[in-house]
Every structure is written in structure tokens, then in C-alpha cells.
Write a structure and sequence with these properties.
- The protein is mainly α.
- 74% of the residues lie in helices and 0% in strands.
- α5 crosses α8.
- The radius of gyration is 19 Å and the shape is elongated.
């Protein structure tokens, strides 16, 4: 059985540059950004983009997956550096920032949601798991209540995504994240 060869260093750099350029294009609000624009922004030919990503949707999925990977990895890093309550607060704000990337990708992501792509189910599960780890640490420290799951908190944050269409939404979303954190502190054994 043939084994896949590791990606050459230049190919790996091109792939990362393409993902970075696509992320920035979507973050800038370009839901309808064209692959030609992304390739130009990455300094590569369109053919190079298509060698890495067969379709525009495949590129969008990978940008989304990369964002989720980075976000979920941050939970453990925050717990290593901060007290559980502060780690949770910081992670909630990262979730708001994460939804900012989704703002530019929203139309493109909606087309993927109509397919059988597991990318969203996987993302929700992983984000809920990250929130659960943070909530468990906060509950063990007595700074947050112990009766809320990561999945429930993620659903509560879901309303943040619907705010994206309004001017100044990110400030309001951060305020909502603060309200959720205040609610999680209510009923804690040692509220901070």
C-alpha cells in the first residue's frame, strides 16, 4: 500500500500562506471574495491554490477548521497561564473574535452547511469540549457554578453570531460574553 509523502517545505509554506490570505480576506468582510484574489494576496498562482484546495469550499472549510483548531488549543494554554475564571473570560472573548472571522465567511459557510460536510458538527463538539474543560476548572476552583455544560454555554453564545449584521456588533458581543460570565459566577461556592 503506498504511503503519502510528506509535503515539501515550499508546498507547506504556500499552503499556510494561502490559508492566511484567505482568512484575512474573509475577516475583511469579503464573503464573495474570489479565489483569484486569495491567490494574488498569497503571492501564488491560482493553479497553486487549486493544487492545495480542489474547490473554493474546500479552502473555506480548511480556513474554518484552522480557526477552530487555534481556538480550541487556546483553552488549555489559557488554563496553564491564568486562574480558571480569568481563563474562561479570555476564552469567551476569543470566541467572540472567532465569530468575527465567520462574519466574512458567513455566506460561504452557509453553502457548506447545505452539504454533508462534518466540519460544523466537529467544530461545535470541539468548542463545547474546550468550554467544558474551562467550566470544570472554574467549578473545581469554586469560581463558577458547576451545573452548566460547555454545550449549553456554546448555545448561549450562539446569539453572538446573529449580531454580526449590525454596526458595532463586536462590542455588544463582548458585553454579552461578560453577562454570561457574571451568570456563571452566580451560585459559585467561592465567587471571585
Amino acid at each position: 500500500m503506498p504511503t503519502s509523502r510528506p509535503m515539501r517545505a515550499d508546498a507547506r509554506r504556500n499552503r499556510e500562506t494561502l490559508l492566511s490570505a484567505a482568512r484575512q480576506a474573509f475577516l475583511d468582510g469579503g464573503a464573495e471574495v474570489h479565489v483569484e484574489d486569495i491567490a494574488r494576496g498569497a503571492g501564488v498562482a491560482v493553479g497553486t491554490l487549486y493544487r492545495h484546495f480542489e474547490t473554493r469550499e474546500a479552502l473555506i472549510e480548511e480556513v474554518w477548521r484552522s480557526e477552530v483548531d487555534e481556538l480550541c488549543a487556546a483553552a488549555d494554554g489559557l488554563l496553564d497561564r491564568f486562574a480558571p475564571l480569568d481563563a474562561l473570560r479570555r476564552f469567551l472573548l476569543l470566541l467572540v473574535d472567532h465569530s468575527a472571522v465567520g462574519k466574512g465567511m458567513s455566506v460561504a459557510l452557509e453553502s457548506i452547511m447545505a452539504t454533508d460536510s462534518p466540519v460544523f458538527d466537529d467544530a461545535r463538539t470541539r468548542m463545547a469540549d474546550a468550554l467544558t474543560r474551562l467550566l470544570d476548572a472554574g467549578s473545581a476552583a469554586g469560581t463558577v457554578r458547576g451545573d452548566v455544560t460547555g454545550a449549553t454555554l456554546l448555545r448561549a453564545l450562539g446569539g453572538v453570531c446573529t449580531l454580526r449584521a449590525t454596526e458595532g456588533w463586536i462590542d455588544e458581543a463582548r458585553q454579552i460574553a461578560g453577562l454570561l460570565l457574571d451568570g456563571l459566577r452566580h451560585g459559585a461556592t467561592h465567587p471571585a
